[in-house]
Amino acid sequence: MFSASSSPPLSRSHEKTAYVRAINLNEEEMEFYSVPINHDGSGGEDGSVRVLTPIKAPNVPLHGGFAAVDNKLYCIGGDPPSDYLYKPRSVYRPVRSLYTFDTSCRLPTKSSWKKRSSMRTGRVFPLTVVVYGKIFVFQGMYGPNPGPRPWVEVFDPKSGRWTSLSPPSQLPTGYGLFAVALPGLGKILVGSCEDEFLYIYYVGDGTWERRDHKMVYDIPCNVKPVAIKTMLFWFQDCYLYAYDMMDKWSYSGCIKDLVKVVPLDSLKPPNVGLFYPTLHHVADNVFSLLCLEYFSGTHQATLLHCVKFSISVQGGEDVNLNPTVMSAKAYGIQTPMSILDAVVM
């Protein structure tokens, strides 16, 4: 699947930008940051760190779904900003709202966020997957009132309409649910760390296929996997994990030189809290990893690290992916942040 040769530089056609979604811990509001991920160095020519300018979003709810289609960002559902001061045994108040932001806007302001047609069901922490330009919104927390478990709604940005998706015969366990697009195949993989089976949803004909798996390592809650063809990848506690859905082999290993470019404490609990470093596929055998570094226990300053690494599969009795850092860069954020996730465009 991936050659063992060295990775060539990414072409201009592969240039991508990560949009990082975070909570401003001072103002308790959503903010977004754009970060180029096709870098080749560790800083500016003089070793300086570029300070990022936030895209403000005071009206966008916290903890909603996050997706990108074409040049637009989508924030779906979530918890009203005034409810951010969460206390034990308190209850989220899911909203149905949908906000969009056009990333081609040269001078973004708070009013650059546009409200579009709302979901049918309010959701907090929903999972989002994009296939064929449509946004699939899975499950999420749906408030204190007992009722049927919400499944999937689909948003078509072109028509502005929401539709509901018929569920499989047996829903996967809600705890530890994950959903990931299988790029270029028109399929969505859905599963839970609690189950011994996975579902593949065929977007074209709207059917579900159940498959048993032999995953040695679980995909934990709040960890978002990525897929390339038949392989799943995820990152947790300094390790890269993988599972091949066809050959059914599992892998885990450290990313070579990662701790040389990112402090160890930034990669694992308790510093990551509920939100782990985010893993993204850039192109071919190249991935990016985004995480935060706090300068003090009071989080008075923040660095956003963007690490690019490559993999090359070596077969045999024990498969080795040989993940190796290619480059790393750090960006400054003026206010303390809690990272939620990111999308790559």
TrEMBL record:
Swiss-Prot/TrEMBL keywords: Kelch repeat, Repeat
InterPro entries hit by this protein: Kelch-typ_b-propeller, Kelch_1
Pfam families per UniProt: Kelch_1
Name this polypeptide is given: Uncharacterized protein
Annotated source species: Rhododendron simsii
Lineage: Eukaryota, Viridiplantae, Streptophyta, Embryophyta, Tracheophyta
